[in-house]
Amino acid sequence: PEVIITVAPGMPGTSMAPADFPVEPPNCAALSELAARIARSTPGDGVHATAHGPLSLVRLSGPTACTPVVYEPRLVIVAQGSKSATLAGQTYVYNPLNYLVVSVTLPVTGQVIEATPDEPYLCLRLDIDPDDVAALITESGLPQAPVGEAEPSAHGLDLGLYAARVNAPLMDAVLRLMRLLDTPEDLPVLAPMTQREILYRVLTGELGHRLRALATTDTRSSRIARAVARLREDYLQPLSIDELARTVHMSTSSFHHQFKAVTTMSPLQFQKHLRLHEARRLMMAGGMEALSAARHVGYESPSQFSREYNRLFGAPPRSEVGRSRGVPQV
After folding, report:
1. Number of C-beta neighbours around residue 269 at 10 A
2. Burial of 69 per CB tally in 10 Å (0-12, 13-18, 19+)
3. Does residue 124 have a pLDDT over 70?
């Protein structure tokens, strides 16, 4: 059964003490300005780069089908419309009231659920660098997760993905970053400072302890984050669970258990998803034929590739890619 994750005051395990974060929501004027600025910078549907590298903007003029995608570590702030991300039967809805944090690379299913040509889905995405998170935790004196603690997430859900409420201080910082796009000469100096403030607001905000757990040195969760990063870089190589566990100084059994707690899948499943997503990207964006893409990502059996591709994406490679080419991947 699917679980819809909602954010509500008093929710057990969400660390919503008043001392932890301001609860004042953003006002309508702030949201309207953010939507107008994103709309002005996105002339068509799709993902749009900005003059500030870690920041990208997204516009879509209608709902989309449920599509398997790979989310990289990032913060997503929605100005208009809404979208959902589903991971292992748990669905996170993010909209102008709730932002999404992706702490580690994760294969998920994404879907824009509210958008029209007159009121398109508009959001900004800010890449998260784990090293920046760790440095900010240290320099700001934020509480770290206890060494060795697994830091279980609320309700037993995964650590790698969560939705939390937008508050006024966070929205204020986000707006200041967007305004800097109008003065490119200020970006090199002021954008990194503003981005740092945004990250600080997330770390001190609702559920920020979950992001801190993945960035704090030598917690079990941070070790899994390092393993995920290595898998992301070397997903085409043969996978040895024992060797990967040793590189992050964990026993094989503990590593396997904690990896699944963070990503909701085993290391082998995770690697398989990354390979299939890369094959899909090669076919859709690069025009590569299915057989060539399968071999490129390490499949020796075309039938096995087709079968596993069909299981993940809901259609055989040729028909699914033919139908999806030209659709923005967001």
Report:
1. 14
2. middle
3. yes
* Residue length of the chain: 330
Query: What is the pLDDT averaged over residues 315-325?
Result: 70
Residue 163, amino acid: A
> What confidence score (pLDDT) does residue 325 get?
53
List the beta bridge partners of residue 68.
109
State which amino acid sits at residue 47.
Answer: V
Q: Between the CA of residue 264 and those of 191, 198, 270, what are the distances in Å? A: 34, 27, 9
Which pairs count as long-range contacts for 27-36, CB under 8 Å and 24+ apart, including other chains? Answer: 27/168, 30/168, 30/171, 30/172, 30/175, 31/79, 31/80, 31/96, 31/171, 33/175, 34/77, 34/79, 34/124, 34/171, 34/174, 34/175, 34/178, 35/79, 35/80, 35/122
Helix (H, G, I), strand (E, B) or coil at 60: strand
Average of per-residue pLDDT across 167-174: 95
Q: How far is CA 4 from CA 7, 16, 28, 88, in A?
A: 10, 20, 26, 12
What whole-number distance in Å separates Cα of residue 25 and Cα of residue 107? 30
Query: Tokens representing 262?
Result: 């963070």
pTM value is 0.81
